[in-house]
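Hey, resending since the last one bounced:
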Amino acid sequence: MARWIALLLIALPLRASAETVYWIEIDGPIGKPAADYIERAVDTASESAGHALVIKLDTPGGTVVATKDIVGTLLNAEIPIIVFVAPRGAYAASAGTFITMAAHVAAMAPGTSIGAAHPVYEGQPLLPRTPPEGKEEEQDNQPRSIIDEKMENMMVAFIESIAEERERNVEWAIEAVRNSVAVTQKEAIELGVIDVIAVDLDELLDVIDGRRVDLGREWTTLATRGAAVEQIEMEQWEQIYSFITSPAVVALLFLGGLLLLYIEFQMPGLIVPGVLGFVSLVLAGFAMQVLPFDTLGLLLIMAGIGLMIAEIFVPSFGVLFVLGVLSLGVGAYVLFDVPELTDIPVQFFSTLLPTVLVFSGGVALIALVVARSLSRPQFAGNEGMVGKLAAADSELNPAGRVFFEGEYWNAEATGQIAQGDRVRIIEVDSLLLRVERAGDEGEQS
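The structure tokens again:
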């Protein structure tokens, strides 16, 4: 009997250690790359018979579309999903709140926070904002738009359904959306927003061991203590995808591509600026397929570039150029300012302002070179012949023939000119030269 008991005691830890818990890390804005990464991780963990998947989360928010995709993935996952807001100092703001509450187990590390999930939309002010219950005196009487109201109600219903499905604090979830309420990890666990607090991943796996979770069709008991831990890393193409779909990077690619193409058009034959500009615009266009952007911002950018180029041909004493720079700056700022779809703004002073200044400086330098070249007299083509000297090959009275730089031209003189006299070209009319007698100023042909 003792022998069987000993074998059983040995087998139990072996069974636990045979379990594999996979984990991934989301550190940054929530967009389509993050949604695709999480979906792939869930599929990989499920197909590999993983016991659970831990999502280590630290995000300022993200797009509504990506958030909806991630929440759908978590709610329909066939393995337990644990969202762990970590490390210390991390937060699950806005979109992160939805993702955390959609997990089978929601955990936070000490020194973290969650909440502030209110969607923002700048539209036509039509509806007054309703203050929280019992706080009528704090109402700011700021008008709201119908679109704002619809977006808020949609997001409230969304997070309410998530909280009800995971049996979390529905009232707090609604307040997080309606009034941007945010709490620390201690308040979150007291309010029933999360399930556990853990310092790190190892402690988290110990704390949640033995917890029962509902997978929809069945309940399962977590056996995470002593489990093998394996990370599902982001693939290289996913890292590139995530990098180029950052609003700041897209803005740089778009403006940089336009500048490089402008250089190629002004200085044909360089090739390298044209190729790099084309590639930059292709990457920016690809990113814009998955990143929400404002069409008005795009139009303002194009108008700004047009105004700066027009400065070369229209003497406005810099007015058009200044207006172009302002239009370019405003357009770049609002290009990805689509708050109803994302709360990841492009930093103006650290990203956009230097980019706009460099772009404007490049255009100004090229415009200056082009303007100087346009102001110089032409030295090639028919216009370059005006003012040059030729020799009368026959008598001009007034028509005849002249010899100019190894070629014979039909000519017409302003007066009678003898054969062999020097003449000055004053006009080129197709294949006819109009000439006059040259003085003795010493001109050279």
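The chain has three domains: 18-238, 246-371, 383-437.

Sorry for the duplicate.
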